[in-house]
Amino acid sequence: EVQLVESGGGSVQPGGSLRLSCTASGFTFSSYWMHWVRQAPGRGPVWVSRIRSDGTTTTYADSVKGRFTISRDNAKSTLYLQMNSLRAEDTAFYYCTRDWDSTNVFDNWGQGTLVTVSS
Amino acid sequence: DIVMTQSPDSLTVSLGERATINCKSSQSVFYDFRKKSNLAWYQQKPGQPPKLLIYWASTRESGVPDRFSGSGSGTDFTLTINSLQAEDVAIYYCQQYYDIPWTFGQGTKVEI
């Protein structure tokens, strides 16, 4: 069974930083592109970032480019999202998602971790 | 960015009846090479993450009941839930995976 478990969320002041982690199991992590998708309470999902299976290629939404960094450790089956210069509008649940067949369809989602940016 | 617009925002359907949700993209998401539209549908129940239902506009994900069906091509798509069950109460989202950034519709809430 595919499992994705996020951690690292919490409350932070504007301008602060957080590092999210996602531990994967039940599949060959190193074979899949992975994504972060966020969802503000009561809103639709918004794609944030993706990383190639071998970690050599990354892509970001314009809203987070230059502030967020996606990375992975295939030996640990773990995906990361380093978030710097956080803003109030970054407040959301952050989901780790698996990419189905390198199509950018999200076939498995974690339960999410909540990031709250507030003074 | 490709804008995905769903209609209606919410609908109330009786048990056993049909629910129809529409999704329109601001530009075509038809992928000539595959002869398919890069459109997916997700279901999100309260307190849960979204769950993939359909991809390539009409292909059901493994394990998804056959009362869920997708149709459409190009810019106009429909998710149909036949014989609505109580467990189908959720918010449904469409998503295009044709071009970066991958974008979702605003969601359609289905109630009984």
Describe what you observe in this structure:
Chain A is built from no helices and 11 strands. The model of chain A has no long low-confidence stretch (mean pLDDT 97). In chain A, 0% of the residues lie in helices and 50% in strands. Chain A is mostly beta strands and 119 residues long. The termini of chain A are far apart. In chain A, strand 4 (34-39) and strand 5 form a beta hairpin. In chain A, strands 2, 4, 5, 6, 9, 10 and 11 form a 7-stranded mixed beta sheet that branches. Chain A has strands at 3-7, 10-12, 18-25, 34-39, 46-51, 58-60, 68-73, 78-83, 92-99, 106-109, 113-117. With 112 residues, chain B is mainly β. In chain B, 0% of the residues lie in helices and 50% in strands. In chain B, strands 2, 6, 7, 8, 11, 12 and 13 form a 7-stranded mixed beta sheet that branches. In chain B, a hairpin with a 3-residue loop joins strand 7 and strand 8 (59-60). The mean pLDDT of chain B is 96. The A-B interface holds A 43-47, 59, 61-62, 95, 100, 103-112 and B 38, 40, 42, 48-52, 55, 61, 93, 95, 97, 100-107.
Q: Gist?
A:
The complex is a heterodimer of chains A (about 120) and B (about 110). With about 120 residues, chain A is mainly beta. Chain A is built from no helices and 11 strands.
List the uncertain runs of chain B.
Answer: none
Cα-atom radius of gyration of chain B: 13 Å
- Tally the helices of chain A: what do you get? 0
Strand content of chain B: over 45%
Structural shape of chain A: globular
One letter per element, helices H and strands E, the order of chain A comes to: EEEEEEEEEEE
Write down the oligomeric state.
Answer: heterodimer
Number of DSSP strand runs of chain A:
11
Q: How is the biggest beta sheet of chain B arranged?
A: 7 strands, mixed
Greatest interface: A-B, 20 and 21 residues
